[in-house]
From TrEMBL:
Alphabetical keyword list: Heme, Iron, Metal-binding, Monooxygenase, Oxidoreductase
PANTHER family in the record: BIFUNCTIONAL ALBAFLAVENONE MONOOXYGENASE_TERPENE SYNTHASE (PTHR24291:SF50), CYTOCHROME P450 FAMILY 4 (PTHR24291)
Gene Ontology MF terms in the entry: heme binding; iron ion binding; monooxygenase activity; oxidoreductase activity, acting on paired donors, with incorporation or reduction of molecular oxygen
Pfam family, one: p450
Essential cofactor(s): heme
UniProt similarity note: Belongs to the cytochrome P450 family.
Family annotation (InterPro entries): Cyt_P450 (IPR001128), Cyt_P450_CS (IPR017972), Cyt_P450_E_grp-IV (IPR002403), Cyt_P450_sf (IPR036396), Cytochrome_P450_Monoox (IPR050196)
Protein name: Cytochrome P450
Binding annotation for heme: C409
């Protein structure tokens, strides 16, 4: 094909420069990524800028760390960037055909369209009663321990609450032994996948103890979800919950329901999407409030003024603007879903550089949320940076805790409501404190960003 036959896109690709590459075979780079991936990537960004190629154990990735370019990948040219990328490929045995793991395309779009209406704020408000009930139960359990001495494991306890909330919203189910097993299975799986990510040999499908443990955990989780679906199909129980909404939703082109296997995968994706992310975010939020007493008192004052002693409703959340800023600042600093990947379908150009078909794109919100061009004093906890005045002029894609574009987190409104309610109701009842002598909690980048060893706090009744 002569130069005259090229499309404008092909000409632009041909004229574009090469993405700068972090030298791949330097042994120091390899161990640095495995040991301290966040520091390593921040160091690369300092040396190579907002767009660079790096390697994870030989696998090339292109880091995109600039709001305009992230918007290009996730929004404007999202058709060209699907999820057929390593992060989703290795988690596919767990996520099946559900929304999170689906690589994209027509089948994905139909599914998302079918499910989307059930996650709008108008539906989420139906579930705030589940949220406030479960948070109240946690407060009751914590009250006898709120003497300023006894240490509570916030991550464990809030994790139970997050799991109960999503289970009740999906299945109207109180949690019992089976759900606790589900939580253990999920933790085991997360550990296997995280271990695999730092050392992806042998592949997950190689027979052996790891694969067996993984399979057993997945099978039990499938069994847990399927038991609910079967009871509904058999007409043994009826409920006005997400499961029944999803079971009665039909595709508008064919008028057909989701098949049972798809439903099972979607439900599991929702629980997986909701559980760890919300647990980690709520743990970090309470930890940050414990380490910033002035912010905690300001939040307390806002909650007392607007709510007094009454149980909050969805409508109240709009009034709790400082509480919302605290949640947003937590999601900025410790974005639970801190990394994602895309696979480039056809040659493209980003920031004047060639992105070849087949490239893996890597986006890391831990880095984006600390980019010094968009965030002043990025390491400091400063909820007021989310005030309308200080947010004005900041590019939207400098803050992406829920992603963006057609694949933005479907549970965003659900999560924001839950996090605001957890923080507001707990701080209204307790002063949260860091136990004397406790070292700072460090972030641990697994599949999601964990507080290393969990958040432990002491409580004082107010
Ligand atoms: C603080 C809490 C949460 C955070 C930080 C979070 C973050 C994210 C992010 C960043 C994505 C997009 C990933 C990408 O583009 O590659 C995502 C997708 C998703 N999230 Fe969440 N999430 C949270 C809570 C929830 C909840 C509560 C649910 C369910 C009720 C949920 C269900 C999902 C699902 C199903 C997807 C896949 C959407 C799609 O691809 O169409 N998430 N989440």
């Amino acid at each position: 094909m002569g130069a005259r036959d090229l499309t404008p896109g092909q000409v632009a690709y041909r004229e574009a420069g090469k993405v700068p590459t972090v030298p791949p075979w330097n042994p120091a780079n390899l161990t640095a990524f495995r040991r301290r991936p966040l520091e390593y990537l921040a160091d690369c960004a300092g040396k190579h800028g907002d767009l660079f190629r790096f390697h994870v154990l030989g696998l090339p990735m292109i880091m995109v760390n600039n709001p305009a370019n992230i918007e290009h990948v996730l929004v404007h040219n999202s058709e060209n960037y699907d999820r057929n990328a390593p992060l989703f490929r290795v988690t596919r045995p767990v996520l099946g055909n559900g929304l999170i793991g689906s690589s994209g395309g027509e089948q994905y779009r139909r599914q998302r369209k079918l499910m989307q209406p059930h996650f709008r704020p108008g539906v989420v408000l139906k579930f705030t009663g589940n949220m406030t009930d479960e948070i109240d139960a946690l407060i009751d359990a914590w009250l006898p321990r709120a003497d300023g001495d006894q240490v509570v494991n916030v991550t464990d306890d809030v994790g139970q609450v997050a799991l109960r909330i999503v289970n009740r919203s999906l299945f109207t189910a109180a949690v019992g032994h089976a759900a606790q097993q589900f939580e253990r299975d999920f933790a085991a799986l997360n550990e296997i996948l995280a271990g695999f990510f730092s050392m992806p040999f042998p592949p997950l499908n190689t027979p052996g103890r790891r694969r067996r443990r993984m399979r057993e955990a997945i099978d039990r989780m499938h069994g847990f979800v399927s038991s609910f679906i079967e009871r509904r199909l058999a007409g043994e129980e009826e409920a006005d919950d997400l499961l029944s909404m999803l079971m009665s939703a039909t595709h508008d082109d064919t008028n057909q329901y989701m098949d049972v296997e798809q439903l099972r995968d979607e439900v599991l994706n929702l629980v997986i999407g909701a559980f760890e992310t919300t647990t980690n975010a709520a743990s970090w939020a309470l930890y940050l409030l414990a380490t910033h007493p002035e912010a905690q008192e300001r939040l307390f004052a806002e909650v007392r003024t607007h709510l007094g002693d009454r149980t909050p409703t969805y409508a109240d959340l709009g009034q709790l603007s400082y509480t919302r800023s605290v949640v947003e600042e937590t999601l900025r600093l410790y974005s639970p879903a801190y990394q994602t990947m895309r696979h480039c379908v056809a040659d493209d150009v980003i920031a004047g550089k060639r992105i070849p078909a087949g490239a893996n794109i890597y986006i890391n919100s831990y880095l984006m949320h600390r980019h010094p061009d968009f965030w002043t004093d990025p390491e400091s906890f400063d909820p007021d940076r989310f005030s309308p005045q200080r947010s004005a002029g900041r590019p939207k894609h400098a803050f992406i805790p829920f992603g963006s574009g057609p694949r933005i987190c479907i549970g965003k409104h659900f999560a924001m409501a839950e996090l605001q309610l957890i923080v507001a109701m707990i701080v209204r009842r307790f002063r949260v404190l860091v136990p004397a002598g406790q070292p700072p909690v460090e972030p641990q980048p697994l599949i999601t960003l964990h507080p290393k060893d969990g958040v432990r706090l002491t409580l004082l009744s107010r």
